[in-house]
Write a structure and sequence with these properties.
Helix content is 56%, strand content 13%. It is α+β, with helices and mostly antiparallel strands and 109 residues long. It folds into 2 domains: 49 residues; 55 residues, no CATH class. Strands 1-2 form a two-stranded antiparallel sheet. Helix 1 packs antiparallel against helix 2. It is rod-shaped.
Length: 109
Amino acid sequence: MQTLAGVSLQLDGVAKQISPSSEAAAAPIRVVRRRLEASFREARQKVQDLRSPMLQGRPLPAVLRESLEQIASGHPVRLQVTVAGQPYSRWSESRSSEARPVVAISSLM
């Protein structure tokens, strides 16, 4: 995506150097601009497709707990999931590592 953004900025610079009356030069730039916008949309969709549907609207600790319970079912283990720290929705806005929740998982046999 960063490369596409760089190409977009370069294209903007080239477009500004072309006089408004030069349609022969402006037309190919519009074609490249449309292809670039399509590439941005495709890249965003690919990133969106990588997101787990299990996490949509659900906190990570709950998803982890559910997944671990499914894995452990039928086995002689007892799981304990402990979460300490601020909720996911709050730390995602922060760059501070202290604001991130800690999830500790232990199996008790």
